[in-house]
Amino acid sequence: MKLQDVDVAVIGAGPAGMAAAIKAREAGAEKVILMERAEELGGLLHQCVHNGFGLLYFNEDLSGPEYGHRFIEKVMDTGVTPLLETMVVRLGQDRQIGAVNTREGFITFRPKSIVLAMGCRERSRGALNIPGTRPAGVLTAGTAQRFVNVEGFVPGKKIVILGSGDIGMIMARRLTLEGAQVEAVVEILPYIGGLIRNEVQCLHDFEIPLFLEHTVTRIHGEQRLEAVTIARVDGQRNPVAGTQRVIACDSLLLSVGLIPENELSLMAGIQLDPVTGGALVDETRQTTVPGVFAGGNVLHVHDLVDNVSWESELAGESAARFAAAGKPEARGEIKVKAGRNIRYVVPQTISGRKDTTLYMRVSEPEETVRIKVGNITTKGMRAVKPSEMLKIELSADKLEKLKEGTQEIIVDCEKRGGK
Amino acid sequence: MSQVETEVLIIGGGIGGAAIARELSKYKVDATLVEKGVDVGQGITKYSSTIMCQGANVLEFRSEYHNSRLVWAGMSLMEPLCRELDVPFKRIGSLELVKDQAGMRHPEKMMRRFSNWHGKYLPADIEPLQFIDRETLRRWEPNVDKKYIGAVNDPNIAVNDPVRLTIALADNARKNGIKILLETEVLDISAGTDEFKVQTNNGSITCRYIINAAGEYVGKIAQMADADDFVLYPVKSYQAVLDKKVGGLINRMVLATGSGMVTPTIHGNLFFGISPGSQRLGKAHDHSTDKKLADAALRHAQELVPAISARDIINAFVGFIVFRNFEIGWHECTVGVSRWVPRFINASIGFPGICAAPAVAKEMIEILTQQGLRLEENSQFNPYQKAMPDFSDLSDEEKKKLIAQDPRYGHVVCRCETVTEGEIVEAIKRGARTLDGIKFRCRPGMGRCQGGFCGPRITKILARELGIPEEEVTKKGGESRNLLYKSKELLEAQQ
Amino acid sequence: MAKEKTYICIGCPLGCEVTLTIDKKGGVVGFSGNKCKEGEKYVLEEYTNPVRTLTATVLTEGSSQPLLAVRSNKPILKTKLAQSMAVLAKARAKPPLKMGDIIVPNLLDTGADIVASSDLSS
Fold first, then answer.
1. Cβ–Cβ contact B491 with C under 8 A
2. Domain range for residue B347?
3. Residue A312's closest CA among A7, A62, A15?
4. What is the pLDDT of residues B405-461, one digit of tens each?
5. pTM for this one?
């Protein structure tokens, strides 16, 4: 494969990478390379056999593979060049990419622009530091999902799930349907970590016990997992003495958070946001390294794949523009900061001159609130939850309200007064 | 049931047993090593701190103890041994941090002792210790807590990879004629006048000499032969490994009295732990971690390097050190012929086991000779062997060459540690039979995602190379299967 | 005696607990707990006709891929999910298949088909 004169190289061909590559082509980039370590396009969508994808983007209720299929076809139709079974192992500050595969060996090239779309990974047991022994049978929910939905295995028949993230709840349903018994879903917070529809359709439908404000305090078993101890936690999330109970099980699934996969970004000297774990970007999704853009879960963990696709299209379009111009556009310099009960806002900076959508999450669940973006706009919300991403659209004419020389905009989640 | 006859039986495939086997392979002798696990180096060895006694860390050892002499003798043996076997060994140096003037007393004493012992107990070519002031400390280690006013710099301290060393020792011993039987657990020993009869789960072994290198089970094995003329105390230690992305926080091992230690590892991670002496006695063979120990270790580490965060921990484990004579406040090893049973030799170094292993192995030759074994040199002995390729460590040109030779090196299976299919297949060729076996040979699953991504892929490769179904692949042998059921098996069973 | 039944509405992040009051004949006579009209609609549907899209996998025959992702092309009664899985456990997908191809027609007489959720090649 000739890798000279690549306009846009997209790293990762999951939903984010596919959307970015398609959009880059549509926006006029001649040569767009879509790099993927697996043997096919689509990323994790293949193992997400459940439905609920595309409700916003296609206005249809699709399964993961169906949602992926539509983008894969479009990748082909738009003339994107996929480069499969290729792992990017190096990214330089000068946009030099180093990658390996079995056909070309070790390859290096320098595209005009890059979109990072590496997605995220799951927090592991080591990262949680759960006390106890180290038997087989402790795995992340996503790994279990791959075994159950792609590889053709069911890890065990008595399952405990730690964490009530979406993948964890979806796997509770999948494993129940596959004939396993899910003994408990254990969540350290007083509310579930995923979407309400998953609580109802994955847990309630199958009468799976949910233990809120509980955590796993010990892992038992020498060779294969035999049981876990769970306990209630106090306000500081410390286990409360005397509330321990032992649950016999052969598998423990962990669904306790996702971490954007930014090792390549760090290699390239890209600055990360300590809260999102993803790059600091402006509204074009350009990172702090000119010509390198990012979209999807590598930037911040999304709730819905539809939002991943939209955001990545923006990154792809910006990358195409950069490749054509050969030089950076003026970077957005107005800081968008998280204020009251806002955990983060992406993008972290904006120019204030074009239509922009702010993506954000709250820190705590709250009812009857108003999201206030500086003096630009407000939006009333009946309820907000950390598990659901909020989107606030800022149109260019609203942004005209910004005073000359504004350096920062604070986004607050305010309580609405009275009834 | 099989019947094996051998002259010398080594029980235990940890660093001790493997080093002894390799030392014995320099001679023409019929020797066999048995290991109950599916792989070598998976007991105490695996839980070692990886720090080699090469400098000031041996100064607390008292000259009247056998243990100390073995550790000192081991100092000049370790690096050449690693070089012969192509196992990484790196001098990273250490800094003993000093908080205030009063805190200078201990380092000063150590520096005095260092010059007195230099050339006597310590090797002549050892680099001198030196005090560095606050400014130098800041410059060298900007992430060390600002409260320290200086440090004693010891350039000699080194790290290596004890499990890889054990695997290499066992491989080399095997190539030079020692028999190694895995998954062979000693169940009983009866001592006759001329020979021992050893019952294992795989049949019986008749031998004339027994070397008991069973690590944390050394007492149990000795008891089988009524050779347990010692009492051991297991002491728990806790260690945590941090993500490579914070591997650059410090360049040298740092420690302070009462504050544990933090060190870079040979693979570029950071590692911290609580020194064994500071912890209470543990329950034997209980390798479970507990929160109290974990919290204390983290606090200690943050004293030294405040930027260390629980967020960056990717793995943690509990090790054991079998101390002897704990009650007198100092540890003595259990290396020598049992006072009660002739030709039964205990080889439990306890602490620090890795560093002393080469010297213990040499001493075994003397003891066996004293016990009547005639050892003739093995003229065929080849001390050298080559490590398997480490893809991530190669230059671009070398990477290209390797992939051209074998395209499987172009297939990256573990993204965190950049491990290729080529390396995994090679590890299996070299004896890996389990997920852990592969992990300890070439590191997939040792990175930040701990096998979340590569686990299913390695399971496939293992099954393919070993010619077994995927559901029979284990984490570490025995009942540690990862996948208990095939798809729809549970549903069919419900019908 | 009136009966009560509680549901969690999934219409918005509020997740209202909506309680239905049901008379002797099973008719709905009242709602409480919901903060909007949408909640009533959702809960009524959950009470009278709770349906779900079934997504799962079936074993393949003659493909290098061990499983094929499948789904029901219409939602089915949630009380039929477990029974449906017993049917899927016996079904086999043989390549070549295109996304949307029927694997199990008229699943348990629900009128819904189980269809391939992706292509399957040998």
1. yes
2. 2-46+162-231+330-377
3. A15
4. 999 999 999 988 999 999 999 999 999 999 999 999 999 888 888 888 889 999 999
5. 0.91
